[in-house]
Every structure is written in structure tokens, then in C-alpha cells.
Specification:
Layout lengths: L9 H4 L15 H4 L11 H7 L5 H17 L7 H5 L2 E3 L1 H8 L8 E5 L13 E5 L2 H13 L2
Antiparallel strand pairs: 1-3, 2-3
Amino acid sequence: MGRRARPHGVAEQACVHVTHPAQWVCGGFHELAGRRQRYRILDVPCLLDCLDMTTEAEFRDWYLRTIEAVIESGPPVREPDWGRAVAVGDEAWVRRLAGRVTTGRCQVTALTAATPFDARPAAGSYALSAPKAVSDGLVTALLSKP
């Protein structure tokens, strides 16, 4: 009692060193790379709009080249803001998402460290932080949205 269920594979992979995002079963690499066709959760038109890209092929080419460039550049550097955040995106989207939180406290902060994944660095990235109970409820609400 009191335990939270984990998605299948998370417990096993928590102790495994991953050298490529494709090895992380619970990650988004396969959907972002266009390798998952069923049970997708990405809003592709919105993603393309946010990145000022016009086609999925253009996005995938950029994404795969960026992943390979980061891997070739040496050992990865963990970005704690990205790992702790409930969501990361442009300011307007993160603030809209924060407005959906009805209990608890959440915080929107600008991320200062640019990453190779900043396709539009001028727009900036923002993080939404919230206590675990709030973030779990928010994620559940987002995933159950039709």
C-alpha cells in the first residue's frame, strides 16, 4: 500500500547505462524519430509550429542529426532543470499549463542554459515545476485529454 505503479521497464532500466536515446524504452525518441506509429501522444502540428518547421521530415532530419551530434560530442551533461520539470516549452505554453493546476503551488522559470536542442534559441525555454502530487495529477489530466 502507498506504492506508485511504474510504467513497465522503468525499474529495470533505472540501473542500466544508456548510450543512445533509442535504448530508453520509456523515452520519446521513437515517437520523435517517426518510428512509433500507434499510440502516439505528440501534437505534431503544434511541435512543427513551435520550431518554425513545415514538415515532419524536416523535423526528423534535424532531430536525428542533433541527437548524433550530441552523442559524438562526448559524455552527456545532465540538465537538472529538464529532469525535474513537469514540462518545458515556450513561455506562453508553460504558463497556460500552469494555469491548469488547481491545487498546490507551481512555478514557471526561464531556463538559462541553451542546449543543442534549442531549435529556436531566441524564443527561450521555460520550465514548470510543481510538487510531485501536483505534477502526477497534471500529467494524468494531460494524458487523458482526448
